[in-house]
Write a structure and sequence with these properties.
Hid-1/Ecm30, disordered N terminus, mainly alpha, two-stranded antiparallel sheet, 32 helices, 47% helix, 3-stranded antiparallel β-sheet, 792 residues
C-alpha cells in the first residue's frame, strides 16, 4: 500500500484502513524517508481533520506511528547521526511528532498515551524487558536532549577526523559543548547556521511536548505539575546543566542589530533569531514553578533556609529553577542583565534611516524571563538594583506600557510590566535610582518634561489611568502602590509630574467616583499616602509638588468635608450621569507630545488574543513591611496589613471584568460597569462612607496648608505677584521643621509570591507562545483549555 505522503498528501488514507504491524518497516519508513520536506511541508501535508480521523478510526495505527517515530529518534541519538540520511530521518520524525502531539493532548483518552510503556518495546523484544521499559515520553525527551548535543548535527565536533573515529555521543561531556559563551562557559563556538536550524527544530518539538499544559483548564491547585517538564528538569536528564546554560546564554548573548551595519538584516538571513526565540520560550516554560508553595528557591543572604544551606533537599526538584537560583557571580549577573536590557531596548532603537535596524518580537518572553530571574534569585534582584542599570530595564517597560495602553489584545503585556515594577518597587534602592535625570529621549506619546526617571514613571502611569482602555482598571491599585512604595525616596518631582498626581487625586475624589464602587476610595488613600511620604521625608527638594498641593487645596478641603448623609450620596451618584468630562486638562503642556512619537493605537479589529485568569487583589499580591530608622524592613502582621481601612479587600478581577464605577475616562457611554464584587447589589450607605472617611490621612497636608497658604497669599498681595517662579523660590527656601505632625513610619507593600499569580503567569506565558508560533501554527485550531482564543 502506497502512502503518497510526499505528493498527494493523503497520508491518512494509508493509516486509516486496517492495523499495520509495527514490524512492517517498509510501510512506516515512508513517513520519514522523504528528503525534501520542511516543517511547513509536514503541516501542509498532514491536515488536522486527517489526524483526528486516524485518532478516532485507527487508534492502533496512530499509536504505532508515534512509537515508531520516537524509536527513530532514539536510534538517531544512539548512533550519533553521522550520515546525512540519518539526520534527515531524525528531522522528519521531529516534524511529524510536532504536528501530531497537540491532537494527542486535546483528547483526554489519549493524554496518558505517552506515559505508558509500549508492549514489546524493551530492547530485546522479550517480555522480561517490559518490566523496565521506559514510558514513551521519557524515551522521547532523553533522545531529544542527546540530539541537542550531537557533534556535527547540533554542535561543533571537537575531533578533526573521519567518520570512523567520530565521537561517541554517550561518552562526550556535553558541558564542553555549551552553545554560547556566557554563564559558566567562556568559549564562544563558531556560528553554524545548519546547527542553529537543527537545534530550533528539536526545541520546537520539546516545546510541543511541554504544551500538554495548554489542554488542561486553569486550576489554583499548584500540585498540578507538568509531567513533561518535571521529567525534563530532573536528574534523569544528564544534559540538564549544559542545556539550561546553552538556552540562557543563547538568549542573553544575542545582538539583533546586525553588527551595526544599517539594513544588514535585509541582506542576510538571521538564523540565530528563530533559535533565540525558541530558546526563550523553552526556558520560561521549564521555569514555570510556583514558588509560593515550596521552600522558596531564592538565594538571599537575609532569609533563613535558602536553597544553598538547605541540606535536604537542595532547593526545588526542578533543576532549571535550582540552577537559576544558584547563579551568583557578578560577571554572570552583568552578562544576563546587559543581554536582557539590550534586547528589551531593541524596539525602542530609533535610527535616522527608517527600518535600518532589526526589530525583535519576543519582548514578552524576555519580560517573563526577567520576572523569573528576580523572583527565584534574590541576589540577582539586588544586583539589578545596585546600580542605575535597573533604569535600562525600567525605560523599555514604561515604553511598552505606554504603547500598549489602548490595545485590548495586549492586556497581558500591561500586567507583566506592572508586576515587574511592583516587585522592584518593594526595594528601597529602586526608589533611590529613580532620582537619576532622564535624558534619553525615547519617542513616547507623553507630555514633554524635564526631570528624572521618577517623573517619567508618574507621567506614564497617569497616561495609562486617564487614557488606557477599561480593562486596565484592575491595575490601578498596583500602579498607585508602586508610586506609594517609591514616594519616600523621590527628591524632586517636576511640575508636570506633580500636576499629574494632583490631577489623579482630583479625578478619584469626585463624589460619583468615590460612591460608585466599594473599593474606589482606596485609590484616594494611596494618593494621600504618596503626598504624606513626600512632604514628611522629601519636603526640601519638592517645591513643585508643594506648590501644586497649595494650588489645588480645595480638593483636600472637599475630601475633609465629604458629605455622608443619604441624600448627598444619591446626589453624588446622579452627578455621574451629567458629567461628560470628569478629567479636565490641568496644564497646557499636555498638548505637546514628544517629538517623533505616535499615539498609542487600539488593536486592529480581528486581532487574536488569549484570555487571562483573574489576578489577586492588591492585598493578596503584597504584604506590608515597615522601614526602620536604619533602613531595614520589618514585615507587619498579616491582620494589620489588610489594605482597606474598613477591612473589605477588593475582589480579584480578571482582565475582562472592569470595576463598576468608571475610572476618570472621558467616555461617551457612561454605562454602569459590572464589578466582580457584584456591586450591582451593593449600595453606598452613610455608615460605610463614615467608616473610611474618618481614616483619611489628611492631617499632614492640612497642617502644611494651614502654615503655608497665608504666607504665600501675603507674598502675592505684598509684591503683586502672579509669577509662579517667585512663589516657588519662596517655597524652596521655606521649612516646616517642627510644624508638621510626627513623621509616620514608612510602609512598603512588597510583592509576595502566591498561587494566584503563578496561575496567571502560566496562562499568560502559554497564551503568548500559542499566538507567537504561527509558522508553522503548532496549536492553531486545537481544543486548548487553559485559555480562550478571542478576537478583538
Amino acid at each position: 500500500m502506497d502512502c503518497e505522503f510526499d505528493r498527494a498528501g493523503n497520508w491518512s488514507g494509508s493509516l486509516n484502513c486496517w492495523p499495520v504491524e509495527a514490524t512492517d518497516d517498509a510501510f512506516w519508513d515512508q513517513f520519514w524517508a522523504d528528503t525534501a520536506t520542511s516543517v511547513q511541508d509536514v503541516f501542509a501535508l498532514v491536515p488536522a481533520a486527517e489526524i483526528r480521523a486516524v485518532r478516532e478510526e485507527s487508534p492502533s495505527n496512530l499509536a504505532t506511528l508515534c512509537y515508531k517515530a520516537v524509536e527513530k529518534l532514539v536510534q538517531g541519538a544512539e548512533s550519533g547521526c553521522h550520515t546525512e540520511k540519518e539526520r534527515q530521518i531524525v528531522l522528519n520524525c521531529c516534524r511529524l511528532l510536532t504536528r501530531i502531539l497537540p491532537y494527542i493532548f486535546e483528547d483526554p483518552d489519549w493524554r496518558g498515551f505517552f506515559w505508558s510503556t509500549v508492549p514489546g518495546a524493551g530492547r530485546g523484544g522479550g517480555d522480561e524487558d517490559d518490566e523496565n521499559a521506559r514510558p514513551l515520553a521519557e524515551s522521547l525527551l532523553l533522545a531529544v536532549t542527546d540530539l541537542l548535543f550531537c557533534p556535527d548535527f547540533t554542535v561543533q565536533s571537537h575531533r578533526r577526523s573521519t567518520v570512523d573515529t567520530a565521537e561517541d555521543i554517550h561518552s562526550i561531556d556535553s558541558c564542553e559543548y555549551i552553545w554560547e559563551a556566557g554563564v559558566g562557559f567562556a568559549h564562544s563556538p563558531q556560528p553554524n547556521y545548519i546547527h542553529d536550524l537543527n537545534r530550533t527544530e528539536l526545541l520546537k518539538l520539546l516545546l510541543t511536548c511541554f504544551s500538554e499544559a495548554m489542554y488542561l483548564p486553569p486550576s489554583s491547585d499548584s500540585s498540578n505539575t507538568n509531567p513533561w517538564v518535571q521529567f525534563f528538569c530532573s536528574t534523569e536528564n544528564r544534559h540538564a546543566l549544559p542545556l539550561f546554560t546553552s538556552l540562557l546564554n543563547v538568549v542573553c548573548a544575542y545582538d539583533p542589530v546586525g553588527y551595526g551595519i544599517p539594513y544588514n538584516h535585509l541582506l542576510f538571513s538571521d538564523y540565530r533569531e528563530p533559535l533565540v526565540e525558541e530558546a526563550a520560550q523553552v526556558l520560561i516554560v521549564t521555569l514555570d514553578y510556583d514558588s509560593s508553595t515550596s521552600s522558596s528557591p531564592t538565594v538571599d543572604g537575609t532569609t533563613t533556609g535558602t536553597a544553598m544551606d538547605d541540606v535536604d533537599p537542595p532547593g526545588p526538584d526542578n533543576l532549571f529553577v535550582n540552577y537559576l537560583s544558584r547563579i551568583h557571580r557578578e560577571e554572570d549577573f552583568q552578562f544576563i542583565l546587559k543581554g536582557v536590557a539590550r534586547l528589551l531596548s531593541n524596539p525602542l532603537v530609533q535610527t535616522y534611516l527608517p527600518n535600518s535596524a532589526k526589530k525583535i518580537q519576543f519582548h514578552q518572553e524576555l519580560l517573563v524571563l526577567f520576572w523569573k530571574l528576580c523572583d527565584f534569585n534574590k541576589k540577582f534582584l539586588f544586583f539589578v538594583l545596585k546600580s542605575s542599570d535597573v533604569l535600562d530595564i525600567l525605560v523599555p517597560i514604561l515604553y511598552f506600557l505606554n504603547d500598549a495602553r489602548a490595545d485590548q489584545s495586549r492586556v497581558g503585556l500591561m500586567h507583566i510590566g506592572v508586576f515587574i515594577l511592583l516587585l522592584l518597587s518593594g526595594e528601597r534602592n529602586f526608589g533611590v535610582r529613580l532620582n537619576k535625570p532622564y535624558s534619553v529621549r525615547v519617542p513616547m506619546d507623553i507630555p514633554v518634561f524635564t526631570g528624572t526617571h521618577a517623573d517619567l514613571l508618574i507621567i506614564v502611569f497617569h497616561k495609562i489611568i486617564t487614557s488606557g482602555h477599561q480593562r486596565l482598571q484592575p491595575l490601578f491599585d498596583c500602579l498607585l502602590t508602586i508610586v506609594v512604595n517609591v514616594s519616600p525616596y523621590l527628591k524632586s518631582l517636576s511640575m508636570v509630574a506633580a500636576n499629574k498626581l494632583l490631577h489623579l487625586l482630583e479625578a478619584f475624589s469626585t463624589t460619583w467616583f468615590l460612591f460608585s464602587a466599594v473599593q474606589n476610595h482606596h485609590l484616594v488613600f494611596f494618593l494621600l499616602e504618596v503626598f504624606n511620604n513626600i512632604i514628611q521625608y522629601q519636603f526640601d527638594g519638592n517645591s513643585n509638588l508643594v506648590y501644586a498641593v497649595i494650588r489645588k487645596r480645595n480638593v483636600f478641603h472637599q475630601l475633609a468635608n465629604l458629605p455622608t448623609d443619604s441624600q448627598s450620596i444619591q446626589k453624588g451618584l446622579q452627578r455621574k450621569k451629567k458629567t461628560p468630562e470628569p478629567i479636565s486638562r490641568t496644564n497646557s503642556q499636555d498638548g505637546v507630545s514628544m517629538e517623533g512619537s505616535r499615539p498609542a493605537a487600539p488593536a486592529e479589529p480581528g486581532t487574536l488574543k488569549t484570555s487571562l485568569v483573574a489576578t489577586p487583589g492588591i492585598d493578596k499580591l503584597t504584604e506590608k513591611s515597615q522601614v526602620s530608622e536604619d533602613g531595614t524592613m520589618r514585615s507587619l502582621e498579616p491582620e494589620a496589613s489588610q489594605l482597606s481601612p474598613e477591612g473589605n479587600p477588593p475582589a480579584a478581577l480578571s482582565d475582562g471584568e472592569p470595576w463598576s464605577g468608571e475610572a476618570p475616562h472621558s467616555r461617551r457611554d457612561r454605562r454602569r460597569l459590572s464589578s466582580a464584587s457584584s456591586s450591582a447589589q451593593w449600595t453606598p450607605t452613610p455608615d460605610w462612607v463614615m467608616s473610611w472617611k474618618s481614616k483619611l490621612p489628611l492631617q499632614t497636608i492640612m497642617r502644611l496648608l494651614q502654615v503655608l497658604v497665608p504666607q504665600v497669599e501675603k507674598i502675592c498681595i505684598d509684591k503683586g505677584l502672579t509669577d509662579e517662579s517667585e512663589i516657588l523660590k519662596f517655597l524652596q527656601h521655606g521649612t516646616l521643621v517642627g510644624l508638621l505632625p510626627v513623621p509616620h513610619p514608612i510602609l512598603i507593600r512588597k510583592y509576595q509570591a502566591n498561587s494566584g499569580t503563578a496561575m496567571w503567569f502560566r496562562t499568560y506565558m502559554w497564551g503568548v507562545i500559542y499566538l507567537r508560533n504561527v509558522d508553522p501554527p503548532i496549536w492553531y485550531d486545537t481544543d486548548v483549555k487553559l485559555f480562550e482564543i478571542q478576537r478583538v
